[in-house]
Queue: 3 jobs
Job 1
Amino acid sequence: MNRGVQHYTLSIPTKGEFIDFIVLANVLVSGVLTGLVYGLMALGLSVIFGVARVVNFAHGELMAVSMYAAALSFAAFGVDPFLAAAPVAVVFFVFGYMFQSTVIQPFITRPDHAQFILLLAVAIIITNSLLIVFGPDARSVRLDYLLESIELGPLLIDRGKLYAALVACGAAAALFAFFRLTLTGAAIRACADSWLGAKVTGLNVKRLYALTFGLGTACVAVAGCMMILLVDLTPGLGPAYTLLAFVIVIVGGLGSMNGALVGGVLIGVSEALAGLLLAPSAKSMFSFALLIIVLLLRPRGLLGEKL
Amino acid sequence: MNPRAAYLLAALSALLLVLPLVADSYLISLATLILYLAYTGQAWNLMMGFAGQLSLGHALYLGVGAYGAAALYHHFGIGPWAGMWLAIGLSVSLAASLGFLAFRYGISGVYFTLLTIAFAEFARIGFDHFNWVGGSGGLFLKVAQRDQIDIFNLRGTPVMFYYVMLALAAGAFALCAWCLQSRPGYYWRAIRENEEAAEALGIDALRWKMLAIVSSAAMTALAGVFWAFYYNNLFPEQIFSIGRSIEIILGPIIGGIGTLAGPILGAALLTLIADGATELVAALGWDVPGVKQLIYGIILFAVVVFLPQGIWPALARKLNLSK
């Protein structure tokens, strides 16, 4: 299970006790910061679905792999995860590009459930390979400077969390800029708008799909390198994050890039609040309840296109 | 039915009926597991293979069924033959509300699948905090003497459980065979292939999809009752986990979605291969967890890539069993 906010050892207020506003503010800030990293992870999923129309059910598992890459390079060479993020993202981009063009491409025209089951198989293979290779023990990256907190008036901000959130924002901004400012980005958006139209105008749709899948996996790689600073890593962590990413993306609107970030922050905050107000173990119940409500009231998500 | 297929079915039934006379307890437990997976696979296949609705949350019906019957037995001493009606009732009402919300509001495809996962996960976390049935610490049924058969309370030998599961699996097979050749089966397949066209022909898609999800849930709930009394312990983390739902869908996908024999063939293949591999790994001295699931994953991957219709349709053509 994910443990996004367990670093906070706040006492849970008992009935009738007044919840300190400073405690509440701290929890909210922590939720927003964690939520931005969630948002980057979900952004990868959203881009992959929005353009290539692939339901990446192995998303959390891919993030677990990138977390292992960060954790192992730290354990072996002492590489700071912030430095590891760039090379890991490049490797993931190449992997994503090749994976899409070889394995997934033939499935693009198959029914939804065939894709879903294919990626489910990939997810099962990844999780259990990680378990067999690295064993069930939890790993983490602890850097001294990350344990310090920054005091900002009454707020105590975790440095590791703050930097992770900043990197997540930076990566998301770079992706936005790519889609808005470059010609290739415009071509990808054209594919998302109309597959047929893009083909008619002579765009190489297959290559653009592969490129998009690569970008999505690069996103999740960066998110994984940040996530290793926030939670302990176990081989079985993938499925919970796949579900989390789907919850975020559906709440925000599947295919909407802004929606993924907004949804990430929303889920980050709601998890943090659930951890404070209810039991920490009940926090994903909050997220699933939010998912069910959004699906019923606004099936296309908060910022998604209308039906 | 093709006469060759009828002979094959008769031979299989005869073999399954006399199996306990010759098999040792290990083989019995393995066969019980295969029958359980064939049964739940059949239930899932009714919804996905016939009506085209992909559920990845069947653990919900399994778990609610198991907890419903087990809680009645544990707290009030009410046996499973009465308790199963509560189990079915709970599952059916959950399935009906999920189905109504989803189908009524036009949630389909991937969104529907994720909604089924969300319901199951919600139940898993909810039961973790539901202390009347033990919460995350689990619910345990009194283990009776294993050599006395008490069919009214479903307490007894592994052979008794084998026959109970065989009866369930045979019943599910017969029900699905009947469905395919009568009105529901034709309507479901029409909806699966093209919902708009089916509606244009006057089929009330909402009503028939509701019937599919509700029947599938009721069947799965019975498997849950069996699970509770066979294993005598229930943990939310085990019975409601998404892994449990995946285990249910593997057999029919590998055997052949929408076929009658697919869930049975898939369940047998998966169980035997995984068991063989686990033994092999143990014999080689590698004591690592995850090998069985890894093999499941690789088989699933190979089947969806190379045999998208599943193994049974290809095998049936080879053996000249199809019409």
Note: The interface with chain B takes residues 55, 103, 106, 110, 112-114, 116-118, 120-125, 127-129, 131-132, 136, 235, 239, 243, 246-247, 250, 279, 281-282, 284-285, 288-289, 291-292, 295-296, 299, 307 of chain A (CB under 8 Å).
Job 2
Amino acid sequence: MKRKWLAPLVGLAGLALCAVGGVAILLRPAATVNAVGDLEAPIAVIPPEVVAFDGLLSISVTAPGAFDVRTARPVDVVAWAEDAHTSVVRGLVSWDDVQVDDVNAGGSYVADGDGDLWRDSRHATGETTIDPADVEPGVVIVLVSESGSSLGDVTLTLSRDRGNGWAWPVIAGGLSLIVVGLVILAAGLVESQLPTTRERERKGHDSVKKTSEAKKAKVDAQPKRKAKKP
Amino acid sequence: MTLTPMRAARPARVVRAAAAALAALSLAACMPPVPSTPDAPTLDAPGAVVPAQSDRIVSETMSELAAADGAKDPSLLGERVSGSAATTRATEYIVAANGGATPEVISETMLATYTTGSATWPRVMATVAEAADAAHTPVVLEWVQDDVQSEYQLRWWAHMVPGGVLPAMPGQSTGADQLSLDTPGFTLTPEQAIEDYVALLNAGASSELEEAFAPDPYRQRMFEARTALAASAAPRSGTYGDTVTARIDEAFVLADAEGGALVFLPLDVVSDFNVPGAQLSLPASDKALLQETLKARVVHRYEDLVVLRIGAAGSGLLPTVVAADHNLVSVATS
């Protein structure tokens, strides 16, 4: 009776685990993600903590015209951009959106491309990609539009843990349970084809009875000897 | 037993609900959370000027200086060479054009570069250029960045005094602390050292401050010239005197790596030679600087840089001049 329910139960549990694991794999998020934010100011600042994002693969900046990509000490950038209209990249709002704060809207615009402030400086036009590995830890990336118009947008490309590393072990566990259920089911079927103990016992009793009766008949069939009188 | 339709629908709903729950569970389980912004990493090189920057500054400065030297044209200075350095060089061009010494070429090879870790302005950067030749000593050059928008400009230089030793300084990647003049922790504050040294220069070798500073050839030459010129003027009831004034606003102090400090001290020196009733004469090179008719009085003005080393409190080190130049910038009659 127990086996009759145990096999389906174990099998169903296995199927459920396989389903959970399978759905997790089918619905898994992309391994890389592009989060985008608008850079409305002619100057954008990407602080070192954003460059230090775990899994950050690249920073892409798209602008309608030419712009400079520079790096400097944070304390120097704070002083340099003190009154300037600046877009400050803060981090991620979601996997799709970059948080960008517009600071000093209506403020001044500082081009100053040749200052001694910059540890590194290069020109770009249209679009450029920055490899975080090429950026000295702790420095600020500063983007400066050459025309003074809005820069455009910034895209942070990140790799992420898909969060479904558990799925395959769960599927394996589910398959194991299905196999166990099948084994239980098969064992039950095999067992059902074999005589039960009672049947065996009954068959055994009948056999013994028949044997004794046969022996009795044999004995009866022998001629009775008369005892010799001494 | 026969199931009613209502009872048959119940398991189907349960299965659908279970499936939806499984899907939701799976989806929730496999969607990683949006990472929060990490803490900012610390700078590997917190100094205000890393080697790439200082190399660019030095290179552009020396190019400008070389162009001006080549043309003997001070108007080519001003972007990277300014202030007293430009004034001194302009004077040297005139002197050289009138039979005086040619301006010494300053080597582009820097033996050392000292920067600050300062977060405020003005900032200073100093280098030590190798000696131009065997007849000269290495030159300490001082650049100043006035504000965040400005470029570093070479403002002063001074040759190391023979035997002068610069202290160990913090590495360029770290930068030295740029100190205020009243910073304690030394044998005397930089401000006190400046006041005392200027007082000594004005008073002469007989000053009680003479023993408070290590001997140096800069003041020794000044005192010797003063003595000689005063002696020259005295027989005709003439006078000679030097007036030395510190440019306190342009002085900088960098902490060294030994607990002491280097004080970059610009000085104005006015040397007044006056012999009433006499007709003075000057060498052609000095006369070229004079815009007036020379009579009984001549005033030479100098813009000097003195680099003074002061020791850590308790070190017992006397304040010592390690570099100094006496730069003529003008000659006038008053």
Note: Chain A touches chain B through 50 residues (CB under 8 Å).
Job 3
Amino acid sequence: MPDNYFTRYLPLLIYFVFAGALASAIVLLSWIVGQRRPTRAKMQPYECGILPTGDARERFSVKFYLVAMLFILFDVEAVFLYPWAILLRDLKMFGFWEMLVYIGIVLVGFFYVWKKGVLDWSTTRGESL
Amino acid sequence: MTLGTFIIVSVIKIVIALFVLLTGVAYTVWLERKLVGRIQNRWGPTRVGPFGLLQPLADGAKFLFKEDITPPHVYKPLYIAAPMIAMIFAVTSMAVIPIGDWVTVAGVHTPLQITDVNIGLLIILGITSIGVYGIALAGWASNSKYSLLGGLRATAQMISYEVALGLSLVGVLILSGTFSLRGIVDAQAGTWWGWLPKWNFFQGQFVAFFVYLMAAFAETNRVPFDLPEAETELVAGYHTEYSAMKFAMFFMAEYANMFTVACLASLLFLGGWHGPLFGPTWLQEILPVFWFALRVFAFIFLYIWIRGTLPRFRYDQLMKFGWKVLLPLAVANLVITGLVVALRA
């Protein structure tokens, strides 16, 4: 294997290009080979045979946004934890206490969110936010 | 090794990997139909070839010749791009997964892995996260109510469980001290008292293993977390409006993701390709790959077994379980693992 650091990522790039070519080829082939007999009913959005009323560009529950925001927070936490986990053997107890403070602060936020009812999907409590 | 040989070897490995992966995906579908059939006391596919073994080929041909519908109400660029995104990123995460030790074939010494990068685990986590876009965009671009609901549910579910999944891996990282998947497997070599293997599972990461396992089921939208495509309420969820090969591509992505998480579970918790080696030299070179494949197969079998056994969660139960059970468990596991390792260091 060549010593250059970046050549190690070259196969990843090649693989990505191959996968992209494969996916495009499948879509294209299906488009070329497949038959085409469109009818009016076939071209409607599927709603179990009932005539569709309006399209799907409607409002949906704000909870999905809240979950997305929580995801960002906790995933960033996980990202901070990764390098710490790798280096913990060198950091020893000092590193452990430092990270415990950080996790503690995050957990305070987590329990606030919990008590506020953001994680409850069965009740309407969280919707008063 | 010169750059030219390196690229040629890489391309050969990539072609083999893609072929094996896609064949594996096709035959996992066969295995699933067969096993779920037996679990439900029926035969599963039997007509095409012996034991229905040619069924995947027949299904592939059928998907190809079906009508490729692009309804007028969809947002076309994203409608076409979504299955491609889902499939490309599901397949690409295989690029950094090692399936065995180094081998020498025709004078070329090379690892059984497409590329050995030192941040393999980060790359896999990153690439599988992008896979969520395929599903979210499919649900939105279809402009159909079932698709939108399925896509929203899938996105919320996958990002919720990704947090628990990511945190459950921290314990393993603390123990092995590296992001390289090869390094993590090497750290699990050997045994205690000659019989108990030093897998991370036995090194105290069993809580993390079960958190990972459940989060991985949710990440791949499998039973009991298959709410995004809950057919009794959402028809088919985010791929309701898809047909022909685009529909098949979502399934290929799902099964490829199953393979990724199965490989990752074997590498991170169950010692990767380590196992008893015996026999002549050629056998000793092949056996690690066999042990690894055996673990991955066991996981795929578990997936199908659970599919045939458990009912589906309700959505509020799903969110509650992910955030209120798995997340605190994963955090507790990483704090305790960190404390033990820091005290010993």
Note: The mean pLDDT of chain B is 86.
